[in-house]
Amino acid sequence: MNIEAVSGELLTLFVMAFALGMDAFSVGLGMGMIKLKVKQIIYIGITIGLFHVMMPLIGMGIGRFLSDKFGSIATFVGGLLLLLLGIQMILSSFKKDDNPLITPVGFGLVLFSLSVSLDSFSVGLSLGIYGARTLVTVIMFGIVSMMLTWTGLLIGKRVQQWMGSYSEALGGTILLAFGMKLLLPI
């Protein structure tokens, strides 16, 4: 394979990784409006990056057999999880309690990471069919989504500092809108 073909494939994978990571950025932007410590932001980014490695890897391994069925199911589940997280954040912004029902810690972090990486499972299924370079693909997906998540969380944290208590409602609205977008593709 010549240099042009390899660089073209890498550019294509980067664009795909960036597109997949934009949901992590958007959701990170919303979730960043919850009061998070820098250590939590680092863990969230790493966890989402790992999920963006695991999910397409699993998808690539399964391949063509389940792609049609799981593609729409994965999108539906991801949208539903984001809807629930968004509603929970909006409702908790009206309460005096500072502890949200679902936080990006422990199982909440797993749910959060799963919701933004389900679409990479579907992409992995497609890439498995076409024989994409597995290691390069999943590493690129993981790194790009981790960086975009950190960017979204840090911007969300800054907005949270500016907006105070209204920021959680705004963050929930962002998650709600993104969940609706997944459930009702236009």
Q: What is the strand tally?
A: 0
Q: So how many helices? A: 6
**Radius of gyration, rounded?**
17 Å
Helix content: over 70%
Give the integer mean of the pLDDT values. Answer: 76
What oligomeric state do the depicted chains represent? Answer: single chain
- Between the first and last Cα atoms, what is the distance in angstroms? 39 Å
User: What ranges have pLDDT less than 50 throughout 5 or more consecutive residues?
Assistant: none
Q: State which percent range the strand residues make up.
A: under 5%
What is the string of helix and strand elements? HHHHHH
* Sheet having the most strands: none
- Principal-axes shape call: globular
Q: How many domains?
A: 1
Structural class: mainly alpha
Q: What are the key terms here?
A:
single chain; 6 helices; 186 residues
Walk me through the structure.
With 186 residues, this protein is mainly α. It has one domain (3-183). Helix content is 83%, strand content 0%. It is built from 6 helices and no strands. Helix 1 (3-31) runs antiparallel to helix 4 and helix 3 runs antiparallel to helix 6. The longest helix is centred in the last third of the chain and has 30 residues, at 134-163. It is globular, with a radius of gyration of 17 Å. The model has no long low-confidence stretch (mean pLDDT 76). It holds the Pfam family Mntp. GO terms for molecular function: manganese ion transmembrane transporter activity. It is a multi-pass membrane protein. The chain crosses the membrane at residues 12-34, 41-66, 72-94, 101-118, 130-154, 166-184. InterPro entries: Mntp/YtaF (IPR003810), Put_MntP (IPR022929).
